[in-house]
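User: I'm preparing a small set of examples for a lab meeting where we compare how different chains pack in three dimensions. I only have the primary sequence for this one, and I'd like the structure in token form so I can line it up with the others. Please keep the answer compact; I'll paste it straight into my notes.
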Amino acid sequence: MHVVSCGSGVPVLFIHGMPTSSCLWKEVIHRLCGSFRCFAVDLPGMGETPGRRYDPDFLRHLAQQIDQIRIENNIEKWHVVGHDAGSVVAVHYARYFPQQVGCLALLSPALFPELKPFFLLEVLRKPILGELLAPLIGQIFWKVAMRRALGPSKMMSRILDDFRKPFSGFAGPWEFMRVLRWGKPSSVLADVPRFLPSLIMPTLIFHGSHDPAIPETFARRAFELIPNANMVTLDSGHFIPLNQPEPVATRLAGFFGNHPPTLGEPACA
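Assistant: Understood. Below is the structure token output for the 269-residue chain.
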């Protein structure tokens, strides 16, 4: 798993969503690395991490892989931040390794089995039809839908190029299709509402006020299910770390500062 890191201080792990990369967090990390030791991973098949086959225990295996990064960097406990599908990875990591998590922060949390993927991407999940339409849908998604979602600036254009890099070339559209075939939200996320109440670490949930992908009800439901949660709404679309890096970094720094990890004890001791 590819990891980028910088800074010094209390360690923080950043997990991007789908289909982005660690580059999602660049501006947030830039603002935090003076006070925190920041790590950002590329999830399988995205950024610079090779793809891997999905299986029923994919999220457990991914949590174990992430914990190896913690061990290799001699970290006893760190804060964990996830965006979109990265929030799913984050809560599963907190589920399997609760004593290694100081605080959780979940941005645009795509946590619940009622999640409705973007309709173009849903087509790619269908056998045969997805294979046939992958080149066309890939072009529409990256050149139209994502450009509109990210905005017209040169910085966003560079970030979009980074997100799209693993899916370039002749085979790129089918690689993109394979990454998206991670399973149906109705089954993959079925047990998330059940275990969220067991996550007792302090948690901060971010919602974008005009997010077209993740409804406010998801953020509100996560806030109600996680015992020690707070919720904040920012003037943003779906890509909160890109749209509002300054408020995100400020909120995270304050939140982590109020809940320093206590080494060698349970997360909320």
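A couple of notes for your slides: The CA atoms of residues 10 and 220 lie 28 Å apart. The first helix runs from residue 26 to 32.

User: Perfect, thanks.
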